[in-house]
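Structure tokens please, single chain.
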Amino acid sequence: MFTTKRKYIGLDYGSHSLRAIELEEANGMLNLSRWASAPVPPGAINAVGEVTDIGLLATTLKDFFRSAKLPMKQVVTMVPSSGLVIRNILLPQMEPEELREAAKWEAAQYLPYPIEEATYDLVSLQPLPFYSQLPDSEVLLIAAHTPKIMALVEACQRAGLDLVGIDAAPLAMARAIGVGEKARQERYPPRQQSSDPLGETAAGFEVDLTTFSEAIINLGYSTTDVSIFQNGGLRVNRSFTIGLANFDQKIMERLGVSWAEATHIRAVEARVDVAGIIPIGEEREIQITAAVQGVAEELLEEIQRSLDYYRAQNGWIPIDRVVVIGDGVKLHGLIEYLSNNLGVALEVGNPLVNLAPTDTFSPDIELYSTAIGLALWGCPNDSR
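Here you go.
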């Protein structure tokens, strides 16, 4: 139960759009009190979520908050997956202060910039089954480039926003859709002993059959992010530049239409064939299907690569739950195509699981998953 009156604004952003959510506590429940979205002008944010024009973004944010009548206080925003370095580090057991110092220098080898320019945090993780019998500590390193964070902070400050927190996008998504023990208990029975040899032992170590793995696939406009969690802890995070913009680009090239027309065609006419077959029919239909099918195949390959990487690290542990969110869930046939070819059931994420029931929300609910997770960041029951 929530005992204090709280309001938080979750601000999600990308190269294509801004999305914001206001949550308000009332009668012991969290309620959606306001939500809004707006386009991002070209040049303000690049395809991987970096602020490229601080002044332009500041003006856009100020206009957005005012037009949507959103409070400018208690705002929580994020660093996108593409701007994060996330690594699992195994270190000998030591005191927390010593562990942080050791992890700092261990982390330096993974960063594409000097450690002095990094803003980072460490999260203690449960050991993987392979390491569960070894005297080591496993920590999750989450790092971002400080100058890029400060560009975002400056844009928010110029817009007059009271920024109280910056979260990692994959953690916000997980918070919104309910990743972890609660999902395991509510949705799935305890796993039975596997008959597969790899389900019994691997490399001489007994397997922890209580391990529960979940993947979130965020199908964005410019990028797709794949985040894989084990027992609620982030284990794999990968971002690649394939999104709805790629579908629009291919349609534009194939049909010789403008970007705006291609976007409309993708939203209204395009369909990804579940079996990957280009149908025989009118020339326009063939060209549209060929355009989207090619991009869908590239997307599938990258997602499969991400899932395979996790499985290669934990070959005896299946992925129990795969959730999809983001703009891409609206592309006709895409979810069915991915599910069919990945060989797993895909679940469209519901970011309202932690909120009071409502029937007045936008039909594009899954597009607000990250914003809702950010707004939940400061709630008393959050386990950040």
